[in-house]
Amino acid sequence: MPLELLGAFVLFAFVTSITPGPNNMMLLASGVNFGVRRTIPHMLGISIGFLLLVVAVGLGLHQLFERFPVTYTALRYAGGAYLLYLAWKIARSGAPEAKGEHSAKPMTFLQAAAFQWVNPKAWVMAIGAIATYLPANSWIGNVVLIATLFAVVNLPSVGVWTVLGSLLRRWLEDPLRLRLFNVGMAALLVASLYPLFTRT
């Protein structure tokens, strides 16, 4: 891959990874509710799951969607339904010390990795990266390079949201503030679905 194309791709990966989206809203909420250490599996799951998604798209999965558009539509709506479920869980989260019915656990590595396959923003990022930055020569090698670079750039980018959430933790020790924060994060997660349901 030419150096100038590589630089442009890294910038694309950084901007798309650090801007708000379902993953980052969930990591912010997890940082607040569980802290950085307990959210690390969630962060790693996002980066590794996304790496696998980019490889799959690069090796031809996007062609399946072009040939059978209904499969992509079904995936979009399944992803939307799952995001609504996650928003509901975030809205009901209590403080990590809570032992009552509203206590929750952070997302696991496997859950976060699997979520990338139904995350609308992840699909847009993966297809955009492959369609825009993948050179025609050395196809498989460049797919692996792009996927690996994306994961390397993605991990610290999503980590910023977890750390930000952790820094807010002390201010949100008040149960009412924490409840309002979690409901707000859930609302933002639902709002992130707007393009999914308005795009044809």
UniProtKB/TrEMBL annotation:
Regions crossing the membrane: 44-62, 74-91, 143-168, 180-197
InterPro entries: LeuE-type
Gene Ontology MF term list: amino acid transmembrane transporter activity
Endpoints of the signal sequence: none
GO cellular component: plasma membrane
Main location: membrane
A Pfam family annotated for this UniProt entry: LysE
GO biological process per UniProt: cysteine export across plasma membrane
Keywords for this protein: Cell membrane, Membrane, Transmembrane, Transmembrane helix
Superkingdom assignment: Bacteria
Compartment(s): Cell membrane
Topology in membrane: Multi-pass membrane protein
Protein's recorded name: LysE family translocator
Organism classification: Bacteria, Pseudomonadati, Pseudomonadota, Gammaproteobacteria, Pseudomonadales
